[in-house]
Design goal:
globular, alpha+beta, disordered N terminus, 8 strands
Length: about 160
């Protein structure tokens, strides 16, 4: 029985090595920055703010998607508490136009009655297709392949030893 459990554990461990680990928040932010264009003064929301897709990138940035492959990286002036756990965000705007240094992101969570307003300091357009391709390439890359001649040391087999 012990050998079966050890074999199952080893198979699970080896299977876990074959896939890419999830990206950390900083790595995800860096990926988005790599595929962001130069800063722009503003952008136009293509639809209602509540239906806009968004991706939190830590507590100082988020990506707002106006279509499946077009979005904007919003960098915030200071730390925005609750952004990573928000169920939705409100983005202030003037007749559908979001402007850097004028508008803010307001994370909405169930636990905070008075949400923080977080000023947008920089807006950069995103290439969603390039981000999606980069993530796909990372997933397809294999990490931590073990050489075939490595044998896992499971320790002594205590099932064959007599009990005292």
């Amino acid at each position: 029985m012990r050998r079966l459990l050890t074999a199952l554990l080893a198979a699970t461990t080896l299977g876990g090595c074959a896939t890419a680990p999830p990206l950390s928040t900083q790595d995800r932010f860096n990926l988005y920055v790599q595929h962001a264009g130069p800063p722009v003064a503003s952008f136009r929301l293509a639809r209602f703010v509540r239906h806009t897709q968004w991706t939190p990138l830590g507590d100082r940035a988020l990506a707002v998607w106006t279509s499946q492959s077009n979005g904007h990286l919003l960098e915030l002036r200071s730390r925005c508490t609750g952004l990573s756990i928000a169920h939705t965000v409100e983005i202030t705007n003037s007749f559908g136009t979001v402007s850097a240094r004028w508008d803010s992101v307001i994370p909405r969570t169930m636990s905070v009655a008075m949400p923080q307003s977080c000023r947008i300091i920089r807006i950069r357009p995103l290439d969603g297709t390039a981000i999606r391709d980069a993530r796909r390439e990372m997933r397809n890359t294999r990490y931590g392949d073990r050489p075939a001649d490595v044998v896992e040391d499971t320790g002594p087999d205590i099932t064959d030893q007599p009990l005292d």
